TrEMBL record:
Any one cellular-component term (Gene Ontology): plasma membrane
Membrane topology, record value: Multi-pass membrane protein
Keyword Transmembrane helix: yes
GO molecular function, one term: transmembrane transporter activity
The organism of origin for this protein: Rhizobium rhizogenes NBRC 13257
Predominant cellular place of this UniProt entry's protein: membrane
Protein name (Swiss-Prot/TrEMBL): ABC transporter permease protein
InterPro entries: ABC_transp_permease
Keyword line: Cell membrane, Membrane, Transmembrane, Transmembrane helix
Subcellular location field: Cell membrane
Length: 324
């Protein structure tokens, strides 16, 4: 009876599957790590990684909701980090982070315009811009890294923008909560949410009802770029340095987080909470592999295998829930 009662919940809440998968992994990781994984310090580290990956995943979820995809977010993340670090050494970090967000919005705008004006699939467009902006980042750093002088790390704005902790958690985690609330309001209490999902469900139908399809897609790409760059700035604030490779492969993790969290790649259905749960699961897996001393050359392989198993388990759970 209890299992039967759970089926309607899983059908209504697409993120419930990844929540259950995450819960199982937390139990397994806690039981097999001899207390090295489930401790306050490590949980704080996991949430810090979840925060930056989660910001990127929220932006990707918005684009996926329109039926498009943005795989350039990894390089946007890196460009945001570099812009923030270069400016934070010269101006107040609050100004630097706003400039980084503007860089991200510009990249998102370029992606959106290329997709909506040329009609080229977003996968191809953003694959191209991924390489373009990664190349720019590598060229700007010339193989070296940008860093913030210690003298510039003393202000309260630097601490608030990822450079410090509050109640044992990095401040990036609190920014993630703020962004989640803002996006939730946008999607649930404003016309933007209905229009975004309508575009993803059927662009032609949405257009016939007066929805400006290109404008909605453009807005999603811009928001995605802004969030990726903001995540990069917060990560740079935490580390104090960044190089041209920062954010590499994070675009794949962000997409995986969204898919694991119940976002439909075809568009028309997203879950912000699910995307964050996916980011938490991926961050937890990475942390567990580090704690268990997995050698770097095996890290990506094992991470990929666990992600595939988690995705399969999530899909199987949803299929079971859909059966009468």
């Amino acid at each position: 009876m209890a299992l039967s009662a759970a089926k309607p919940l899983i059908r209504r809440h697409s993120e419930l599957g990844i929540f259950l998968i995450g819960l199982v992994l937390v139990v397994i990781f806690s039981a097999t790590s001899d207390g090295n994984w489930a401790n306050l310090y490590n949980i704080g580290t996991i949430l810090q990684v979840t925060a930056t990956l989660g910001l990127m995943s929220l932006g990707v979820a918005l684009v996926i909701g329109t039926g498009e995809i943005d795989i350039s977010v990894g390089s946007t993340f890196g460009m945001g980090a570099l812009a923030y670090l270069w400016l934070a050494a010269r101006v107040d970090p609050s100004v630097a982070v706003m400039a980084a967000i503007l860089v991200g919005s510009a990249i998102g705008l370029i992606n959106g315009l290329l997709v909506t004006r040329t009609g080229t699939p977003s996968l191809i467009i953003t694959l191209g811009t991924l390489m373009i902006f990664r190349g720019i980042a590598i060229a700007l750093t010339e193989g070296f890294s940008f860093s913030i002088p210690y003298a510039a790390r003393k202000g309260w704005t630097y601490v608030v923008l990822g450079g410090g902790d509050f109640l044992n958690f990095n401040t990036a985690f609190y920014w993630l909560i703020v962004v989640l609330v803002v996006l939730w309001v946008m999607l649930k209490a404003m016309p933007f949410g209905n229009r975004l999902l309508a575009v993803g469900g059927s662009a032609e139908s949405a257009h016939s009802r007066g929805v400006r399809v290109d404008r909605i897609k453009l807005s999603a790409f811009v928001l995605c770029g802004m969030l990726a760059a903001f995540g990069g700035a917060l990560e740079a604030g935490k580390l104090g340095f960044a190089d041209g490779s920062m954010g590499r492969l994070m675009e794949l993790q962000a997409i995986a987080s969204c898919v694991l969290g119940g976002c439909l790649l075809a568009g028309g259905r997203i879950s912000l909470i699910g995307a964050l749960m996916g980011a938490f699961v991926l961050s937890s897996i990475q942390s567990y592999l580090v704690v268990m001393g997995v050698q770097p050359q095996w890290f990506i392989l094992i991470l990929g295998m666990i992600v595939v198993l988690a995705a399969y388990g999530d899909r199987s759970l949803r299929q079971w829930a859909l059966k009468k």
